[in-house]
Structures are given as structure tokens and as C-alpha cells.
């Protein structure tokens, strides 16, 4: 989308969003002087008014945090950046329509791997998002994505893995050999939105068996 | 992965994820053609999930008919890939509409005042626009309709 453009001042105006932390990013063009300044506006799709984002006016930075401004999951949004070069040249570019639900990607989960003698416990910690519920509390990913589940894999050796999956937060791989190293891999999956996080990986060793010593 | 849609006494299943994945192939290009971003056809005030359960089947049936009869058929493009995607979407919508028709035959797809009024408003927004602009906007808002259905 180009509203007005001096060629080469402004490129790639787009949202990058992880766990609903939504950052507007852009690039300067090949011909834009270093002291070019940028101003950001945003709007809700279907409404008339563009709103200036405080803190991102006449800035030399090339990113702007619009997390709070795009925090209503039933809405869709646009943002636009205006670049102004010292010589008075300007350009404005707009994002595609941004849907927080559709566009946000999922960060790797936060997992604690606890070795025992013949088992390994894996505890997934809740992931709060900046999205506020009707009660004003931060919503977790599980609350937002009703079909979110965890997929856990324990790599025993090159050819053998154990698998667990579910929506609960605590898992235990049992029947393991004491004093042996394993690799735990945990990912988050959201089928309805075809989302899958990058894996969280932990390398952990079961405890030695001191029963008979 | 089939999803169960509870529309009052009418309960159907639909593969919304597959429809969403198909639509995502043309989503950005279709939305980029929508130049009326000050206006929205499917508004939160008229959403399915804010409609009382007994009226949801009727409202959805009307919406599917709007898309089948006036959106998918009339979207003008020379891009064959887009046309194939639209045909795919139309077939998916037709399947859902057939299931709603069965509910209608079993008297579980009642059109109450709420459904009738909400559809009237949506149609009004649609017809406010120049015909092809309305078609482009409605197709670009398909993800809104899918999310409404997911919340059933």
C-alpha cells in the first residue's frame, strides 16, 4: 500500500508479532539520509480515524511497539509510517490488514526439566500475554487459543524417542535408565490457527541409582 | 480437523482450519484491493457469537447464501489461482449450507427477529458500496466470518 511516495525513502512496513507482542517495523530506503525521521499512525479496520502513536513521532528509530493499540482480538488493524527527510522529501506506507489472532507467532514454551533416578518431569509454565481479559487480567495463550496443546518428546537415543502430549502443564517420562543423558523437546501447537512454536530444548541427566551402594 | 458448530438446536461439523488455510493463500492480495478501510461489512455488533443461539443457524445460513450467491460468483480477477481458491471456498461453504438446510428441514433453523435484523444490517453495509467494491471487501472479510464460526 503506498499513499504518497518519494522513491527509496521507506520499505517493508509490517507488523511482527510474537505471543501478541506486536511491533511495527520498517526499513529506510537506499536513498534515505541517516537523519530521516519517521512518524507512526494506526487505525482499527472499519473506523475512519488514524491515530498518532505517541512516542513514535519524528523518531529516527525503525520500529514502534503497537502492542496495546492492537490488543482487541475481535478487531483488525492497519498502521502506516511517514518518513520525512531533512531535504523535505516524504513518503508514507501502510501495512497489510493486521489480525493479531492470525499473524502472531508462538514463542517457545518456558519449561522446567527435573531429573529423577528413573524419570524426568517436565513442567510447562504459563505464558501470559499483553492481552487483557474483560476482568482486566492478562490472558494466557491457553485462554486465548482454546485448542492449544503441548507436544513433548524425549530423545532416548538416535533411534528411539518417547512422546507425550496434552493440555495439562505437568508431564513425566518414566522407566528411564539412571545416570543417563536425555534431550527433552517441547513445542506448543494451536491447530485451529495452524500455529506451532519453535521448540524448547533441555538436556538433562537422570540421577545415579544409589539404592544398593 | 472437524470443528463442531453449536447453533442452538442445530449442531453441525465443519473443517474451518482447512477453509482458513485455503483462504490464507489469497487473503493479503484480496484485502490489498479493498480501498475502503474506513468501513466494515461484518461488524462486531452483528456477530454470530453475540446472537442468541436459537437465531444463529438462520443468520449463518443467510451469510453463507450471501457469499455463495453474491460474493464468490462476482469476484472479478484474471488470476486463475485466485479463481481456483474461490471455487474451493465456495464448495466448502456449499457443504456447510447443505448441513444447515437439514437443520432447516428439521425445524431447528428458526429465523427470529434478531437474525433477520442483523442480516438486514449486514446486507445494508454490503449494498452501501459499489458492487465490485462490496464483493472485494466481503471476500477480504472472510476471515472474520470464519472466526465467528469458530466461536460457535
Number of helices of chain B: 7
SSE ordering of chain B: EEHHHHHHH
Low-confidence stretches of chain A: none
**Main pleated sheet of chain A:** 5 strands, antiparallel
Q: What is the CA-based Rg of chain A, rounded?
A: 23 Å
Structural class call of chain B reads mainly alpha
Q: Taking strands numbered 1, 2, ... along the chain, how are they ordered across the largest sheet of chain A?
A: 1-8-7-4-5
- Percent of residues in β-strands of chain A: over 45%
Assembly annotation? heterodimer
> Which stretches of chain B of 5+ consecutive residues score pLDDT under 50?
none
Largest interface: A-B, 19 and 23 residues
Secondary structure: helix percent of chain B: 55-70%
Number of separate strands of chain A: 18
Keywords (chain B): Cytokine, Disulfide bond, Secreted, Signal
Function (chain B): Immune regulatory cytokine.
Pfam family, one (chain B): IL10
Disulfide bonds (chain B): 10-103, 57-109, 58-111
Give an overview in words.
Chain B: Immune regulatory cytokine. Chain B: Belongs to the IL-10 family. Chain B: One of its GO terms (biological process) is osteoclast differentiation. Chain B: Its main location: secreted. Chain B: It comes from Jaculus jaculus. The complex is a heterodimer of chains A (213) and B (152). With 213 residues, chain A is mainly beta. Chain A contains two helices and 18 strands. A five-stranded antiparallel sheet of chain A has the order 1-8-7-4-5, with no helix packed on it. In chain A, 4% of the residues lie in helices and 48% in strands. Chain A is elongated. With 152 residues, chain B is mainly alpha-helical. Chain B contains seven helices and two strands. Chain B has helices at 16-23, 27-32, 53-71, 80-105, 113-128, 131-140, 142-150; strands spanning 3-7, 10-14. A two-stranded antiparallel ribbon of chain B has the order 1-2. In chain B, helix 1 (16-23) runs antiparallel to helix 7 (142-150), helix 3 (53-71) runs antiparallel to helix 4 and helix 3 runs parallel beside helix 5 (113-128). Chain B is globular. The relative contact order of chain B is 0.24. The mean pLDDT of chain B is 95.
Amino acid at each position: 500500500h503506498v499513499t504518497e511516495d518519494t522513491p527509496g525513502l521507506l520499505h517493508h512496513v509490517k507488523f511482527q508479532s510474537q505471543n501478541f507482542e506486536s511491533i511495527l517495523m520498517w526499513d529506510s530506503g537506499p536513498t534515505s539520509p541517516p537523519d530521516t525521521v519517521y512518524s507512526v499512525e494506526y487505525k482499527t479496520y472499519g473506523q475512519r480515524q488514524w491515530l498518532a502513536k505517541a512516542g513514535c513521532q519524528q523518531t529516527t528509530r525503525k520500529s514502534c511497539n503497537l502492542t496495546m493499540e492492537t490488543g482487541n482480538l475481535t478487531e483488525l488493524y492497519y498502521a502506516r509510517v511517514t518518513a520525512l527527510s531533512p531535504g523535505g522529501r516524504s513518503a508514507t506506507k501502510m501495512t497489510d490488514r493486521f489480525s493479531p489472532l492470525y499473524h502472531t507467532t508462538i514463542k517457545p514454551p518456558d519449561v522446567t526439566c527435573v531429573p529423577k533416578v528413573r524419570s524426568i518431569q517436565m513442567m510447562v509454565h504459563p505464558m501470559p500475554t499483553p492481552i487483557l481479559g474483560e476482568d482486566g487480567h492478562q490472558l494466557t495463550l491457553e485462554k486465548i487459543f482454546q485448542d492449544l496443546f503441548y507436544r513433548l518428546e524425549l530423545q532416548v537415543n538416535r533411534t528411539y524417542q518417547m512422546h507425550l502430549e496434552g493440555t495439562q502443564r505437568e508431564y513425566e517420562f518414566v522407566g528411564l535408565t539412571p545416570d543417563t543423558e536425555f534431550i527433552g523437546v517441547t513445542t506448543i501447537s494451536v491447530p485451529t490457527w495452524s500455529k506451532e512454536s519453535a521448540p524448547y530444548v533441555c538436556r538433562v541427566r537422570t540421577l545415579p541409582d544409589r539404592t544398593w551402594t | 480437523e472437524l470443528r463442531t458448530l453449536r447453533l442452538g438446536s442445530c449442531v453441525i461439523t465443519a473443517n474451518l482450519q482447512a477453509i482458513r488455510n485455503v483462504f490464507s493463500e489469497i487473503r493479503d492480495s484480496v484485502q490489498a484491493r479493498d480501498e475502503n478501510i474506513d468501513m466494515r461489512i461484518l461488524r462486531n455488533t452483528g456477530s454470530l457469537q453475540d446472537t442468541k443461539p436459537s437465531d444463529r443457524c438462520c443468520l449463518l445460513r443467510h451469510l453463507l447464501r450471501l457469499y455463495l450467491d453474491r460474493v464468490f460468483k462476482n469476484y472479478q480477477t484474471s488470476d486463475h489461482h485466485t479463481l481456483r481458491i474461490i471455487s474451493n471456498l465456495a464448495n466448502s461453504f456449499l457443504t456447510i449450507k447443505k448441513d444447515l438446510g437439514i437443520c432447516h428441514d428439521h425445524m431447528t433453523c428458526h429465523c427470529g427477529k434478531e437474525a433477520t435484523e442483523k442480516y438486514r444490517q449486514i446486507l445494508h453495509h454490503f449494498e452501501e458500496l459499489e458492487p465490485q467494491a462490496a464483493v472485494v471487501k466481503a471476500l477480504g472479510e472472510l476471515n472474520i466470518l470464519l472466526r465467528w464460526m469458530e466461536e460457535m
